[in-house]
Design a protein that fits this description.
Elements (H helix, E strand, L loop, with lengths): L1 H17 L3 E4 H8 L8 E6 L5 H11 L1 E2 L4 H8 L1 E5 L5 E7 L2 H9 L1 E6 L2 E5 L2 H11 L2 H13 L6 H15 L4 H14 L1
Parallel strand pairs: 2-5
Antiparallel strand pairs: 1-2, 3-4, 4-5, 6-7
């Protein structure tokens, strides 16, 4: 975990040097808000807007090595840059531009992972929303851990206000009821 945190912290310093708005999401945020589990990569939302992805990717590729051939084409098509950070730690940089992604970064905050190493991570509420939208089995396990660890602390209005339109956009009406069923089960426990 030390190599991951060190690599993430170095990436954060680089992004801050560029004055680019960002926050860590994924496993590093789960480590902060949910059940602590092993994670091997650093996932970041980087606010880039739409258009100009090649310039952001080019700047990052001057510092880090791509994990795939033709990374610029991949970024333009998928809005994700797959890199190796320091210590060969995988880094997934998601290029954000939606209003929700702007709000995620705005609501993010710093958390100390190791002495002298703070990382800017998304809020617990936004992590629940992102995990619910991804909706893989591991994501639902992570949500359960977040709900258990943050019991009584989550802003459920925020979660539902953000999640509902995204679930509609994904055309998956089962997401919100599934989350509420899990919440109820954990609260009545």
């Amino acid at each position: 975990m030390h190599d991951l945190i060190a690599a993430a912290h170095e990436l954060q310093e680089y992004l801050e040097l560029q004055e680019w708005p960002f926050c860590f999401i994924g496993g590093l945020s789960v480590f902060r808000w949910g059940e602590r589990r092993l994670t091997v990569d650093a996932d970041v939302t980087l606010l880039t807007g739409f258009g100009g992805e090649e310039a952001y990717a080019g700047t990052l590729l001057r510092r880090y090595t791509s994990r795939i051939p033709d990374p610029i084409d991949f970024v333009v098509k998928n809005r994700v840059l797959l890199l190796y950070l320091n210590n060969q730690v995988p880094g997934d940089i998601a290029f954000g531009g939606l209003p929700y992604e702007e709000d995620v970064v705005r609501r993010s905050s710093y958390h100390e992972y190791e002495t002298g190493r703070e990382l800017r991570t998304c809020s617990a509420e936004d992590l629940v929303v992102m995990k619910a939208i991804a909706s893989r089995p591991r994501d639902w396990q992570d949500i359960e851990g977040i709900l258990a660890r943050q019991a009584g602390k989550l802003d459920w209005k925020l979660v539902l206000d953000e999640l509902s339109p995204l679930a509609d956009l994904k055309e998956d009406p089962a997401i919100v009821p599934r989350l509420m069923k899990l919440r109820k089960a954990l609260e009545t426990g």
